[in-house]
Amino acid sequence: MATFADDKELLLNFRVPGTREAAFTQIVRKYQEKLYWHIRRIVLDHDDANDVLQNVCIKVWKSLDNFREDSQLYTWLYRIATNESLTFLEQQKKKATVSFSDVETGLSNKLKADRYFDPGKLEWKLQLAITSLPEKQRIVFNLRYYDEMPYEEMSRVLETSEGALKASYHHAVKKIEEFMLNH
Amino acid sequence: MAHNDNIGRELRSISEVVAGLPGNTPFTVPPHFFEQFPEKMLEAIRHSAEGQEEDASGILAGLKDRSTFQVPAGYFDQLPVNLMKRILLEEEAENSLEEEEILPAILTGLRDLPTFRIPAGYFDALPEQLAVQAIASDNNMGVEEELRRLSPFMASMSREYPGKVPEGYFDLFPWEAEPGQWESEPAKVIPISRTLPLRKFLAAAVMVGVLMASAISGFHIYDSPSDFLRSGVNLKTKAQFNTALARISDQDILDYLKSNTDVSDADLIASEVDEQQLPKIEDNADGTHPAELTPAEISGENKNTAQ
């Protein structure tokens, strides 16, 4: 497993013109997989995730000079990735001119269209259950279940109180359990 | 993916079923995707930056001077004149439309619409109401205001009386009464009796009775020969005629005949005159003249005849 420099050191190098591109490459390499999977679980499709991830990286490149170090870098990156993913879904809604429930159906269909999709496997069934959740609960569940993000950090990413996040996570787990038992 | 112990316990407390599910993600990514992604991303950013510079300096600068749309030759030279012509034509068309089409149509349509309603019998009671209001207004109106309403011309004239009084008239007038001059007994107060109307009715009844009795008895008083002649047809007997005629003096008859004799009067008089009593020509054949004619009158008449 590759070792990466500390976030503070990376940020310092980014602010120096001579080491700017190298520092940016290190930051991307450090957080790319986390950001990718976070985005992928929201948009489901690899190509869409790739597009969103590139947009996130471009925004990071443009905005990193203004990043305030009062929060952790990866929290800031997750917030950008979450917003970009939700913006991407909103754009898809407008293009499709369909209702939100139809978008959920579209996400389910997109999941089933994956060439590796196997409905007999529990992990795919779990993904189907997650797509049945409301958007906010889906993001909370993913951040907590897959990324093991503490509520405190999740609160900063989603700008929501920890109590509300715990409630959302509780509801999401119960709905997934019900889905798994009934399907 | 190994769950954090706290997160695992939390999940198990919520749902044993979900906690037992595999924690791995079934999604796959192309081979070496993450290995090449940072370099590709940096390359994309460089290209994007170069593209932006190109857009700013090259493409946009080149497009700036290019005009996509074309206008006819001389369009802008003639534009002010053409716009002014169009404005004038539209204003003229709007005015004519209002005067010739819109306004007459609107007025014609409105003419027959019962827009205003009046209470039933309004015009029947209107004159009385106006009279009452006019009287009330007159009562409250001052002299100046009343005259101004009646005749502004009269109101503008001087109200000073043009006549004069003899000099010193008012100085000599005994305005200042001497002691005791105006002290006299109080004026007699005549009470208004409630029987007064009854007396009036009685007096009127007496007068009506007298007039009716005189009409029945044929009592007439003729002021002039004209009255007598006009009423002659009503005389029942010749004796009545003669009695009435006797009351009129001869001088009145002469004056009347001089000023009012005409054909109809002559016929009327002739019809009433007894020809047997008139003087005959033979009565004057001896050269004598009627006693009424003086010698001077007779000579004058002869002189005129001679001429």
What does this 3D model show about the protein?
The complex is a heterodimer of chains A (183) and B (307). Chain A is mostly helical. Helix content of chain A is 75%, strand content 0%. The longest helix of chain A is centred in the N-terminal third of the chain and has 24 residues, at 20-43. Chain B is mainly alpha-helical and 307 residues long. In chain B, 62% of the residues lie in helices and 0% in strands. The longest helix of chain B is centred in the N-terminal third of the chain and has 37 residues, at 75-111. Classes of the chains: A mainly alpha (183), B mainly alpha (307).
Layout: helices, strands, pairs:
The complex is a heterodimer of chains A (183) and B (307).
Chain A: H1 7-14, H2 20-43, H3 46-63, H4 73-96, H5 100-112, H6 122-131, H7 135-145, H8 151-158, H9 162-182
Chain B: H1 5-14, H2 16-19, H3 33-64, H4 75-111, H5 122-140, H6 143-150, H7 152-156, H8 169-172, H9 196-217, H10 225-230, H11 238-246, H12 250-260, H13 263-272, H14 295-306
| Total number of beta strands of chain B | 0
**Unreliably modeled segments of chain B:** 55-71, 302-307
Task: From the alpha carbons, calculate the radius of gyration of chain A and give it in angstroms.
Answer: 18 Å
Q: Quick one: biggest sheet of chain B? A: none
Helix and strand content put the structural class of chain A at mainly alpha
Can you write the helix and strand succession of chain B as a string? HHHHHHHHHHHHHH
Mean pLDDT of chain A: 89
Largest sheet data of chain A: none
Report the uncertain regions of chain A: none
